[in-house]
């Protein structure tokens, strides 16, 4: 019988100790909840910031023709302004350009640029003509890497 | 039942009763203690989550929080056609180009809740300036991408027909519950934030700030 009483007292003591721990922990949680609620504005800004950043990252990963235009422009390095690009259709993946090159020096620079570039997947020259009056008339079709 | 059996029963009855009481009290008492331990563990987990959340929220620098304004300009919550056209006109003017035939049409949304507006226009001027203009479109807010460009030269004057796409998206409508954890900005998010900070912002637009705003002080509607 004594053992039973001791057992009951042990259970009771364990219950009281745990109940006290729970009450204290719960009080700590309530206090933290109040403090977190006081930072609600910061939390809203953080959620908004993360939402916008995720969407902006998604936009930035979409194809952009600006890169194609910059790539095409790189082919005109060291080509004089006398030579002109008289037509261009540029999208994020494909570039069709036609140009008039007035001198042999410009043609050499342009071909050198084509040879040295690593920006394109394919480079086709569907037409290449020469006339004494206009110089070289070239059509180039390119696709990005 | 013999006298002997009765004697045995009498002597063992208290022991059996005590054993039964042990079982009853033990089962009830221990289950109560186990339940308490489980609740303590839950409370400690919540406490830990809240402590971490509070630490993150308190450590958010004022610069980071105010960056919400920049990202709201970069990706507004409503159709930013006017801001885009204003920005494009400013860029054209800076590059000494003539901008004409501006047309804007809503392109629709996609699976990631992004909507977009397509703006088409012509720019006239030297090719170098047109290229410079197109390159600078990447640097304006609202974030605008070049869809396609058609360039033609007529009597020494370059005319480019450019089509751009500008995005917008609704603000998030819910805020997590108070006990739900939040994560701090990652390195890539901070890098992106720096890039956004370097964009050219329109002189007018919408903003969301912590202390008060032009349109809506609380985008979560609470």
What's the helix and strand layout?
The complex is a heterodimer of chains A (145) and B (222).
Chain A: H1 2-38, H2 40-60, H3 65-74, E1 84-91, E2 94-101, H4 104-116, E3 120-131, E4 135-144
Antiparallel strand pairs in A: 1-2, 2-4, 3-4
Chain B: H1 3-59, H2 62-74, H3 81-94, E1 98-109, E2 115-125, H4 127-137, E3 144-154, E4 157-168, H5 187-197
Antiparallel strand pairs in B: 1-2, 2-4, 3-4
Helix pairs in contact in B: 3-4
In short:
The complex is a heterodimer of chains A (145) and B (222). Chain A is an alpha+beta fold and 145 residues long.
Main attributes of the structure:
heterodimer, A: 145 residues, alpha+beta, Gyrase A, domain 2, 2 domains, four-stranded antiparallel beta sheet, 4 strands, 56% helix, B: 222 residues, Alpha-Beta Plaits, 5 helices, rod-shaped
What does this structure look like?
The complex is a heterodimer of chains A (145) and B (222). Chain A is an alpha+beta fold and 145 residues long. Chain A has 2 domains: 2-60; 65-144, Gyrase A, domain 2 (2-Layer Sandwich). Chain A contains 4 helices and 4 strands, in the order H-H-H-E-E-H-E-E. Chain A has a 4-stranded antiparallel β-sheet with strand order 1-2-4-3, covered by helices on one side. In chain A, strand 3 and strand 4 (135-144) form a beta hairpin. The N and C termini of chain A lie far apart (87 Å). Chain B is α+β, with helices and mostly antiparallel strands. Chain B folds into 2 domains: 1-59; 62-170 and 181-197, Alpha-Beta Plaits, CATH 3.30.70.60. Chain B is 48% helix and 21% strand. Chain B has helices at 3-59, 62-74, 81-94, 127-137, 187-197; strands spanning 98-109, 115-125, 144-154, 157-168. In chain B, strands 1-2-4-3 form a 4-stranded antiparallel β-sheet. In chain B, strand 3 and strand 4 form a beta hairpin. In chain B, helix 3 (81-94) runs antiparallel to helix 4 (127-137). The longest helix of chain B is centred in the N-terminal third of the chain and has 57 residues, at 3-59. The radius of gyration of chain B is 34 Å and the shape is rod-shaped. The model of chain B is unreliable at 208-217 (pLDDT under 50). Chains A and B meet through helix 1, helix 2, helix 3 and strand 1 of A and helix 1, helix 2, helix 4, strand 3 and helix 5 of B.
């Amino acid at each position: 019988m004594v053992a039973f009483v001791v057992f009951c007292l042990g259970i009771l003591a364990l219950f009281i100790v745990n109940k006290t721990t729970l009450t204290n922990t719960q009080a700590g949680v309530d206090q933290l909840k109040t403090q977190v609620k006081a930072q609600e504005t910061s939390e809203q800004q953080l959620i908004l910031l993360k939402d916008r950043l995720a969407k902006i990252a998604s936009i930035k990963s979409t194809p952009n023709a600006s890169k194609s235009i910059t790539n095409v422009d790189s082919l005109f390095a060291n080509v004089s302004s006398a030579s002109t690009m008289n037509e261009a259709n540029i999208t994020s993946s494909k570039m069709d350009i036609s140009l008039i090159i007035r001198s042999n020096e410009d043609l050499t620079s342009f071909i050198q640029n084509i040879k040295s570039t690593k920006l394109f997947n394919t480079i086709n020259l569907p037409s290449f003509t020469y006339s004494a009056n206009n110089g070289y008339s070239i059509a180039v079709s390119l696709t990005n890497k | 039942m013999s006298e002997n059996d009765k004697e045995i029963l009498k002597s063992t009855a208290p022991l059996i009763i005590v054993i039964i009481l042990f079982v009853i009290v033990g089962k009830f008492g221990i289950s109560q203690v186990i339940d308490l331990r489980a609740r303590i563990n839950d409370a400690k987990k919540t406490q830990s989550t809240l402590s971490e959340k509070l630490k993150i929220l308190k450590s958010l620098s004022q610069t980071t929080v105010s960056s919400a304004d920049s990202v709201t300009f970069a990706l507004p919550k409503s159709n930013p056609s006017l801001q885009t056209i204003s920005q494009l006109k400013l860029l054209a003017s800076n590059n000494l180009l003539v901008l004409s035939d501006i047309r804007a049409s809503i392109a629709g949304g996609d699976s990631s809740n992004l909507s977009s507006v397509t703006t088409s226009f012509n720019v006239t001027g030297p090719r170098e300036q047109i290229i410079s203009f197109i390159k600078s479109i990447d640097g304006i807010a609202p974030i605008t991408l070049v869809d396609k460009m058609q360039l033609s030269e007529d009597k020494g004057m370059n005319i480019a027909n450019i089509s751009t796409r500008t995005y917008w998206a609704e603000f998030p409508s819910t805020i997590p519950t108070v006990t739900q954890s939040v994560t701090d900005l990652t390195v890539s998010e901070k890098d992106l934030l720096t890039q956004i900070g370097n964009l050219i912002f329109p002189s007018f637009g919408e903003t969301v700030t912590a202390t008060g705003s032009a349109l809506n002080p609380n985008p979560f509607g609470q």
